[in-house]
Amino acid sequence: MxxxxxxxxxxxxxxxxxxxxxxxxxxxxxxxxxxxxPELRERLxxxxxxxxxxxxxxxxxxxxxxxxxxxxxxxxxxFAVVFGYHLLLVRAWPQLPWGFAAFAVAAYLAVLAIxxxxxxxxxxxxxxxxxxxxxLPVEDLWRVYAVEQIVWPALVRYVEEKRTPPDSTEFTYRAxxxxxxxxxxxxxxxxxxxxxxxxxxARSETGAIALAGHRxxxxxxxxxxxxxxxxxxxxxxxxxxxxxxxARYDARDFVLYLHALLCKEVITRTHGAGQPQRWATxxxxxxxxxxxxxxxxxxxxxxxxxxxxxxxxLLGAWAWGRPPLEFVTDPPPLFRDLTGWRIAVLxxxxxxxxxxxxxxxxFAWRAVxxxxxxxxxxxxxxxxxxxxxxxxxxIRFLQTYxxxxxxxxxxxxxxxxxWTRSTQSAEQQLSYPEVVDxxxxxxxxxAEVLRATGVTERVVIAIDExxxxxxxxxxxxxxxxxxxxxxxPGCLFLVSVSDDAIVSFERRGIPARDAFDxxxxxxxxxxNFTPDDTRNWISRRVLGLPEQFVCxxxxxxxxxxRDLRRTVVELLDxxxxxxxxxxxxxxxxxxxxxxxHAFTGAARGIExxxxxxxxxxxxxxxxxxxxxxxxxxxxxxxxxxDGLAALRTQAAAYLLFSATILEVFTDDLTRDxxxxxxxxxxxxxxxxxxxxxxxxxxxxxxxxxFRAARGxxxx
Length: 715
Fold this sequence. Notes:
Layout: H1 3-11, H2 14-22, H3 27-35, H4 38-50, H5 56-62, H6 73-92, H7 98-135, H8 138-163, E1 175-176, H9 192-203, E2 207-213, H10 219-228, E3 239-244, H11 251-271, H12 277-320, H13 324-329, H14 340-371, H15 379-396, E4 400-410, E5 416-426, H16 432-452, E6 459-464, H17 472-482, E7 491-498, H18 499-507, H19 510-519, E8 522-525, H20 531-539, E9 542-543, H21 547-557, H22 561-572, H23 580-604, H24 610-620, H25 627-640, H26 645-664, H27 671-675, H28 682-691, H29 696-710
Parallel strand pairs: 2-7, 2-8, 3-6, 6-7
Antiparallel strand pairs: 1-9, 4-5
Helix pairs in contact: 1-3, 1-8, 4-8, 6-7, 7-14, 11-15, 11-16, 12-14, 15-16, 17-18, 20-21, 21-22, 21-28, 23-24, 23-26, 25-26, 26-29, 28-29
InterPro entries: P-loop_NTPase
Protein name: KAP NTPase domain-containing protein
Organism: Amycolatopsis methanolica 239
């Protein structure tokens, strides 16, 4: 086999096709590139003469060995069935009539054939290995070695190179995948903070972990990764409950809400997931069609079985010389005076009867399973599901039970005596400590049963969107109220908290910080994307986007994941094929228009004054400013104005940042000029964008440092 055939054999295989399709790389392009690769050709030429001495050759052989299994239940069962049937046939053979004997022999041969087929499937991989290695076909061994050790690694390197963003200032890309809607099967981007969270989750079986970070940094995504097993074992994800933090209702109601969610999830995992609402609606709409199809299937099956029964009846009537009706109502002795035709008819009748009985049994089994739910095999799971259902009903309803009786007795002297009794028993509202105790007891029991039965190793309860509570004191109060449930054995709590809330807690002094520290066993801070994180995230969604545009998106978004997605979506709205400067102009102008409206709206909300009017006049003129020089001049003018210092600094910081973006991302920008400027790394510009939300003056200082390192004008 020649080198070209080796390369083509790898590329046209299912694994290579799947890899290339995932990366949106045309098969023809990959084939032409690898075929023309001189390094690959050289390795194939030298490898043919030396591969038998390569230590990796042993791995080529051992990788083909099947997994060692001490006992194969299928092979043992097949042997037991054949052996048992053989003993039964030998024991009953002298008493069997000829017809039954023929049928028994046919069935024995069928069982033997099935057992041989099962055995052949089990030993086929081992036989293939012995055939290949025992005969020592050097050419075949070379082909296997070349594919696994030379051609496939070359293909992987080629795909990695294609995944690396090219160095170009022309706006091009190959394909877009998973940008507008996050696919559950998409490979996630695990950042350094994600690895820290993975480690924290792996070593914590009980307690609470706080997820800190700005809004939009990916706390909800991190919770979803933990719940789905991405930051753990994907094959055995935890039993996860995700609840949004309350905006108004109190801690008692929230713990009851967590309790109800946990009960529902336990019922789902121990009984099978129910249909989503949209599928339930579709099922109701499709019910008439489904009923007609089932009725037609039943009619067809019934007719087929009637025909199958009629054939041996007619043949039997002919073989025994009786009318069909008489043959059925008054059958003759079937096992007397047997001839060859009569034996064949009996064998056919037995096969038809076996088929009909099997089909009817399968139909009855499906009908019974359709009428009742599938019960878990383990009785502990059935008990847990029953307890969860009872707990859920107790949370939802207040049970009331009333009994009473009344009697009347008339005495002779016209006097009357009456006695009535009425008792009412109502389950009273549980106090908050009782609610916490009920939740802790059920959560601990559920975690223990689920772990003992092998359903999952842990229970994860996540509280998301705590940062939507506007007042930090309210968020602190909620955490302090519900932290009594955080130390349930076998349950891990994840609570997403904004950086603003954490800063507020820490500023309130030692007691507040101690209360916060006592609630959480560990805190993981999720940061903005680094340039490498951004490159990895974009390369999985916009394939083939040049490095200059990747860096542009990182700087404009500041590395904030939520803003990064929005920036990339806006970038793709620009027609492909345009130069970098034109694309930057479009993106910056769009953002300047939005920021001008936002700044103007904020200024109009301030009490009227000459300073406010002057600032508004400058702000409304932002969309008309052209070129980075005019933007810098307007930024300096706004920053030097009197009054409204906070708003002026915000506007000036963004104008200076926008001017810098326009000056840096030009058509002559190369990868080296982008990254190899000491003190002028693009990450500094991304940090300036991040600081606009916290301290615009710091943002202006960072932008000024970046401009100075790049040799740009500094006002």
